[in-house]
Amino acid sequence: MQAFAAINRDGSRFEMDATRVDALRGALRGTLITASDPGYHEARAVWNGMIDRRPALIARCIGTADIVACVNFARETGIALSIKGGGHNISGLAVTDGGLMIDCSLMRGCLVDTRARVAHAQPGATLGDIDRETQLHGLAAVLGFVSLTGATGLTLGGGFGYLSRRYGWTTDNVRSMTMVTSEGKVVQASPTENADLFWGLRGGGGNFGVVTSIEHQLYPVGPEIYGGGIAWTMDSAPEVLALYRKLADEAPLELSVVCVLRIAPPAPWIQKEAHGKPIVALFICHSGRIQDAEKLLAPVKAFGKPVGDVIQRRPYLSQQSLLDTANPNGRRYYWKSEYLPGIGGDTLDAAMQYSKGLPSPFAAVILFPLGGAIGQHANSHSAVGNRNANYVFSITSSWEKPEDDAANITWARDAWNDMKKFSTGGTYINFLSEDDIGERIQAAYGVNYERLARVKASWDPHNMFRANKNIAPSK
User: Fold this and answer.
1) 410 burial class (0-12, 13-18, 19+ CB within 10 angstroms)?
2) CB 180 within 8 A of CB 64
3) pLDDT tens digits, residue range 107-123?
4) What whole-number distance in Å separates Cα of residue 170 and Cα of residue 180?
C-alpha cells in the first residue's frame, strides 16, 4: 500500500501509511489534499510569493470538528503541524514542509450581535469579511489596514489599525476566544474562564492551539467617515514630514495618519506626471464627527501642491481597503520594523534617507501611528505588551522577480540596522519575517516572554504548535 513521505515535529523524516491518511480523510467533512491532487499548489500558496513550502497533507476544514480531527491526527502520528487562517502573514508560517496544514480559510463566517455590539468571527475570516458584516449596522471592530488580511492571525499577534489610537490593540477589544488544544479539546478563554490562556492568546500568536472563534467588541463607526490619501512629490518631503509630525503629535484619538515614502504607482488618484516618481503620502482616517474632521484636516488639504488628494467623506469600507492594491497576493515581500517612542527630526531624516535607495517600485518606508488608548493599560494587561510604543517604523520591501531577492532583502536589512537606534527595543510580532527568530521574538514580548513560556507549558507542553513565532514551553 502507498506510503506518504512526511516530516515529524522534530524535523526527522518518516513514512506514513496510506490507511492513516484515508482514516483522516474519512473523518473530515472538508477536503484532504495531497501533492497529487488537483488544487494542491493553489491550496499551499499564501500571500507572500517568496514562500514555497510543500505540506504532505492539506486539510481544508469547514468546521471545528474537522480541526479537532486534524489535531488528534497530528498528535497521534507526530507529523509537523501548521495552521492557515487568511494566509497573509509575512513569514508564511501557515505552510510547513512535509507536514499537515490545517487550512481554515474556508471558515469565513461572521455573526454580528447588534444588541451586545459584538462580532463572532470564524478563523478564516478576513478583515474585509468582518467589516462588511459589521458595517451593515454602523459598527466596526478594531482591525488592520488591508482588507485581505486574516483577522485571526492579526488579532493573535496584537493587531493595530486606524481605530487603535482610539480603542487600543485589536486584542484589547476581544471579549473571548474558542480554541482547540493539543489534546483535541475545545475550550473557551475569557477574563473569567481560562484567564491565563486568554492573557496569552492576546498577543502570543498561534502558540497555544487552534483558535476557532473570536468575539470582537464593536464600536459605532461609519458607515461614513472622513479620510483617504494625499500625496506630494518627494522634493516636498522635509516640509510634509514636519507637517506629519505636528499633525500626529497633536491628533485627537479619532484621527490616525499613516506616512508612506515610495514610488508613485499608476493610481488614478495621482497625477500622471508623478507616476513612477518618488512621493510622500499621508493616509488619513478620522472616525469621529465628520464636521470636526473637515475642519481639522483643511490645512492638510491646502498644504503645498499635492499631486493627488482623495481625502473626503467616504464609506468606512472604502477606507479599510484603500491600501489593498499596494499589497496584492503573490508578490514577494520582506519587512523589517521597530516600535518607536516618538518621532524626532533625526527619525524623519532617516526615513528620507532610506527612501532614496528604494530597490523596487513597490518598496516603501512607512510610519504607522500608535499611542493613545494603547498606552492606557500596563504592559502586563495582555501578552502583546509594548504599551510605550507611539509609532511603528516599517521598512517594507516588495518586488516581483526571484532574481531581485538579494537587492531587496539587503536594502531592507541595511535600513533596519540603522533604524534600530530609534527603537523602544520592541517590535511587532506580526511584521517579523521568516528569518526573525530567537532574540527578535523575545524583543517582541519583552518582560512578558517568561510568562508566555509558562502559559505555553500549561497548554502545549510538547510544543506541538511550533510553526509560528515560537515560544518554547518553560521547563
Assistant:
1) middle
2) yes
3) 999 999 999 999 999 99
4) 21
Please state, as a whole number, how many other Cβ atoms lie within 10 Å of the Cβ of residue 271.
15
pLDDT digit string, tens, across residues 290-308: 999 999 999 999 999 999 9
Q: Which cell numbers hold the place of 47?
A: 500571500
CB of 441 within 8 A of CB of 470? yes
For 325-342, give the DSSP string: GGS-TT-EEEEEEEEES-
Q: Is the pTM of this model over 0.85?
A: yes
**274: its cell numbers:** 508623478
Q: Which three cell numbers stand for residue 382?
A: 495582555
Q: What are phi and psi of 186, to 5 degrees?
A: -100, 120
Full strand arrangement of the beta sheet holding 31-33? 31-33, 57-60, 100-103, 81-84
Q: Are strands 219-220 and 139-140 parallel, antiparallel or unpaired?
A: antiparallel
Query: Can you list the positions of beta strands (E) in 199-324?
Result: 210-217, 219-220, 224-233, 255-263, 278-286, 308-309, 312-315
Instruction: Compute the average pLDDT of residues 83-93.
Output: 94
Model confidence at 1: pLDDT above 50 = no
C-alpha cell at 402: 526571484
Residue type, 304: G
Please return the burial class of 39, using the count of CB atoms within 10 Å of its CB with bins 0-12, 13-18 and 19+: exposed
Distance (Å) of CA 71 to CA 22, 29, 75, 106, 201:
16, 15, 6, 18, 18
Which pLDDT tens digit goes with each residue over 40-68? 999 999 999 999 999 999 999 999 999 99
Looking at this protein, which amino acid is placed at residue 44? R
Sign, Cα dihedral of 164, 166, 168, 171 = negative
Cα–Cα distance measured from residue 64 to residue 188, given in angstroms and rounded to the nearest whole number:
13
Tally: H helices and E strands in the chain: 14, 21
> CB under 8 Å, gap of 24 or more: what pairs does 68-73 form?
68/180, 68/184, 68/186, 69/24, 69/27, 69/28, 70/24, 70/28, 70/100, 70/102, 71/102, 71/180, 71/181, 71/182, 71/184, 71/209, 71/210, 71/464, 72/184, 73/20, 73/24, 73/27, 73/100
Determine what percent of the chain falls in helix, strand and coil, rounding each to the nearest 5: 35, 25, 40
Give me the pLDDT at residue 2, please. 63
